[in-house]
Amino acid sequence: xxxxxxxxxxxxxxxxxxxxxxxxxxxxxxxxxxxxxxxxxxxxxxxxxxxxxxxxxxxxxxxxxxxxxxxx
Length: 72
Hints:
Layout: E1 2-7, E2 13-14, E3 20-21, H1 33-42, E4 47-54, E5 59-67
C-alpha cells in the first residue's frame, strides 16, 4: 500500500518533481498520512485527497482531504 496525494478535480497524483501524473506508480509516496497531509498543505496546490493506493488490486481508498496553498 502506498500513501499518495491526489488532486480532487483531475484525480491525478502529485509527484516528487511537483507535477501531476495520471499513473499512481509515478506519484510521490509518503510513509504515513500525517506526512502526506503536511506536504500537501505546504505545496502550491488546490484541493487534494490523501489516498491509499493498494498496488495488488489498483484500489484507491480516500483517507483524508484538504487544501494546499494554491486553493482559491
